[in-house]
Write a structure and sequence with these properties.
With about 70 residues, the protein is mainly α. The chain is about 60% helix and about 0% strand. Helix 1 (about 5-15) runs antiparallel to helix 2 (about 20-40) and helix 1 runs parallel beside helix 3. The longest helix has 20 residues, at about 20-40.
């Protein structure tokens, strides 16, 4: 996983923000994947990956948990 991969995923989440359920699922999956890569030490720059993934917090769509 690279920062470019995350940037593309963040853009994809922005593109579907009108469908909050899909956007929220994509956001959760991205955060999980980033954490998994960081935990397994399979990334070059963990801080950069985390910074990029956290940018999803600024995308405005409803988030809820059942």
């Amino acid at each position: 996983m690279t920062t470019d991969d995350i940037i593309k995923t963040v853009e994809a989440i922005k593109a579907v923000k009108g469908d909050a359920e899909t956007a929220h699922s994509m956001e959760d999956e991205l955060h999980h994947e980033v954490l998994a890569h960081i935990a397994s030490c399979t990334c070059q720059n963990p801080a950069a990956l985390a910074r990029e993934a956290l940018k999803t917090a600024s995308i405005r769509f409803p988030r809820w948990c059942a």
